[in-house]
Structure of Polyadenylate-binding protein RBP45B-like:
Amino acid sequence: MMQPGAGGVAPSALGQQPAQQYGQQPAQPYMMMPPPTAQAPAMWAPQSHVAPPAPQLPQHSQPASADEVRTLWIGDLQYWMEENYLYNIFLHTGEVVSVKVIRNKQTCQSEGYGFIEFNSRAAAERVLQAFNGTPMPNGAQNFRLNWASTGEKRSDDTPDYTIFVGDLAADVTDYVLQETFRARYPSCKSAKVVIDRLTGRTKGYGFVKFGDESEQMRAMTEMNGVLCSTRPMRIGPAANKNAGGSQQYSNGCQEALSSKGQILISAEMVSP
DNA sequence: GATGAGCGT
């Protein structure tokens, strides 16, 4: 027989209202700030904060074939941003099916990203367009949203040529950084300002990716010292993360190995 | 100041 108390539980596991305390956050973290300049497009969020025109940050194009893709990936989460926080942010859409923050199994600490599933692909896309790159309710950082990858490979055939950009002012966002470069380098694909997960604030450096190697090279010299927002950028080579950007070290490794070998050999020779 | 971040049961 059914337990009386458990009969009419909320459909979603999140239905049970979360006790809303997010670390240092005061009582109502979700109070959406009034739209700065927003005339609400009144599609699905009549009365709410419609963020400034979502900058066209690079996102994976929506997979056309897969009807099932209704989930967004969200990153750059601070540790205190848990399911209930995310859930309440998108609550007004009425179309959130589930929310999940990925945690480390040992420490149970957030890994800084999660997934938001909507009841339709269109709903997910609206959220993606409207929120991505706009300030999160806590005010410190911007939403970093994208389509969740469904295990299928992302269409990413082209190599990236990346540079490191330092000395960024506090107000430089991905969008600002990217536009700074895209104005001169059409192959500029994306820009990312690195965010401190503890504070949600910028670390003052970032990465810019180009599709064209010669533009990467040119940008390295031409853009060094150029103003971005209020500060001159300092540009350097990016440590090889995603290949492409710089030369492989295959030869270097061999040299290192052989010279190590030499050291060993000479050590043997030196020994009595 | 100083080299990310990225897909779960």
Remarks:
- Residues 71, 73, 75-76, 100, 102, 111-115, 144, 146, 148-151, 162, 164, 166-167, 192-195, 203-207, 234, 236-241 of chain A lie near DNA strand B (CB under 10 Å from a C1').
